[in-house]
Amino acid sequence: MKANRHPAALTADLGNSALKLAAWRPLERGAIGAAHPAARATLEHGKGDDPGRLVEGLAAFLDQAAASGAAVQVAALSSVAGPERTAPLVETLSAVLKTRGVELYCGPDHGLANLCDEPHTVGADRLFAARGALELLGRGCVVIDVGSAMTVDAVVAGDPDATEPRGRFLGGAIAPGPWLLAQALATGGAQLKLIEPRAGVPALGQVTGAALESGVVHGLRGAAFELARRVGAEAGLADSVRVVTGGARGLLLDPEPFWTGDLREDPDLVLRGVLAALLERVGA
């Protein structure tokens, strides 16, 4: 018989340049969608980084989590990085967790039916964000994740009374994120400087730098709106909630939201999806 509460868990997401961590207190069953992490951290982790610093950062985070009521019992990692970065991280993270009697699960099954034509090419972050959105809402939606790239994806819930996956990932769109847009302009234009995208810039730029900021920020917002609209319409989710996540999501939300319909923000969407997959994997 399963326990009435999930164990305290660590979820980790390795992206292009950083490792995002969330520690979760023991949860009542069915409470994943409403849960908030007890602790969060983002550790810089690029190729060639000092593993000693990573060990120190991981240990400090686990201590912080324990002090916040999340003494980790199970852990999972999702990664979109290549094997040259993922493998050393798995070794380091496993070693740190082993000293605390915790096993690391790498890439747990997201629990979704991936309906894309080439499912093996879909990034784990897109799938876990979709799973996290289903946990958050309990119904189909369009997910917008703004980071190095901006992804806009559609997911629908499975039948709770049938023995089928938790939901169906329908696919979506991938566009450049704000920093890629800024870098493309700076490298592609002979006299265009690199700008730092920031929320709330005016559309009417009156010097070149301000015009670049406008093009990147308002261009991103316009692309997000149109992709969220078209992806939703083509997926049969025109009137559904749009869920926004990712480190650059503020550009879509400030000073006013990019979407005029039903909109939710969740900074932990990918890690929420990893948590749901982990707890299913360990049968907790």
From TrEMBL:
Instruction: Please identify the protein, giving its name as recorded.
Output: Type III pantothenate kinase
The scientific name of the source species is Engelhardtia mirabilis
NCBIfam families named in the record: baf (TIGR00671)
Source taxonomy lineage?
Bacteria, Pseudomonadati, Planctomycetota, Planctomycetia, Planctomycetia incertae sedis
Catalytic residues? D125 (proton acceptor)
The entry's ATP-binding residues are D13, L14, G15, N16, S17, A18, L19, K20, S148
Q: Which Pfam families match?
A: Pan_kinase
The main place the protein resides is cytoplasm
Q: Which cofactor(s) does the record list?
A: NH4(+); K(+)
